[in-house]
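TICKET: design request
STATUS: open
ATTACHED STRUCTURE:
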C-alpha cells in the first residue's frame, strides 16, 4: 500500500487587539454547486468581512511580536464541504509525489491554495500528524500576514450534480480566515489541532 503524504504551512501572525470574529472570512473562489467556479469570484462574506488588523499587508510582512496570536486556516471547497464548518478547516496543504522535497511542496501548495506566495520568514517545523484515513501530513509554521479578501485558490473539477453529465469546477479552498488558537482548534480537522498546540509551545519557549 502506497503511503499518502501531504505537506503544508500554518501561517501565523501577532495582532494588537486581535479578535477576528469566528466568521470573518472571504471566499477565494466563487464556486456554486450548479456551475463552473472561477478563481477570484465574488467573495462569500464580502471583502470587508475578512479584513481584520493588518489586512492588505503582504504575506511577508510580520506583525508585532507583542500581539495576540492568530493562525490562518482554509475551508475546503466543493459541494460536499459547503455546509460543514467545525472540524472541517485545514492548513493549506497538498499531496507530495515521490521524490519531491516536503518543504518545497508545502510552499507551493500554500501559494496555489491562497494565491499568495508564502513569506520568507524562518520556518518552524511542526512535525507530522496522521489524519483519519491514514494520510500523513507534514507542516511548518511561518510568520507573516495575508488579507483573506485577496486570497484566490486553484480549482478542481468533478461531475456535478451527480448523473447530470456536467463537469463543474470548484476552488480547492473556498475561503480563508484568521483565528485565535482556541477557535482554530474548534474549526480545524481534529487530527491537525496538534499543529496549533505545537506552534504555541514553540512561541512560549522563545
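STATUS: resolved
RESOLUTION: sequence designed for all positions
ATTACHED SEQUENCE:
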Amino acid at each position: 500500500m502506497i503511503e499518502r503524504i501531504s505537506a503544508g504551512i500554518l501561517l501565523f501572525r501577532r495582532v494588537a487587539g486581535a479578535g477576528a470574529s469566528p466568521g470573518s472570512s472571504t471566499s477565494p473562489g466563487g464556486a456554486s454547486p450548479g456551475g463552473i467556479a472561477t478563481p477570484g469570484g465574488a467573495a462569500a462574506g464580502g471583502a470587508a468581512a475578512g479584513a481584520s488588523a493588518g489586512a492588505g499587508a503582504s504575506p511577508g510582512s510580520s506583525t508585532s511580536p507583542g500581539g495576540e496570536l492568530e493562525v490562518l486556516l482554509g475551508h475546503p471547497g466543493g459541494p460536499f464541504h459547503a455546509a460543514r464548518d467545525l472540524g472541517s478547516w485545514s492548513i493549506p496543504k497538498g499531496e507530495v509525489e515521490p521524490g519531491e522535497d516536503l518543504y518545497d511542496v508545502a510552499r507551493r501548495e500554500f501559494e496555489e491554495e491562497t494565491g499568495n506566495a508564502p513569506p520568507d520568514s524562518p520556518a518552524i517545523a511542526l512535525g507530522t500528524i496522521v489524519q483519519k484515513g491514514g494520510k500523513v501530513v507534514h507542516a511548518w509554521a511561518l510568520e507573516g500576514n495575508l488579507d483573506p479578501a485577496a486570497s484566490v485558490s486553484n480549482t478542481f473539477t468533478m461531475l456535478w450534480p451527480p448523473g447530470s453529465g456536467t463537469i463543474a469546477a470548484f476552488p480547492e479552498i473556498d475561503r480563508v480566515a484568521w483565528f485565535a488558537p482556541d477557535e482554530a482548534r474548534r474549526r480545524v480537522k481534529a487530527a491537525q489541532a496538534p499543529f496549533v498546540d505545537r506552534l504555541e509551545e514553540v512561541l512560549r519557549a522563545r
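CLOSING REMARK: Residues 5-205 form a domain with the Nucleoside Triphosphate Pyrophosphohydrolase fold (CATH 3.90.79.10). The first strand starts at residue 5 and ends at 15.
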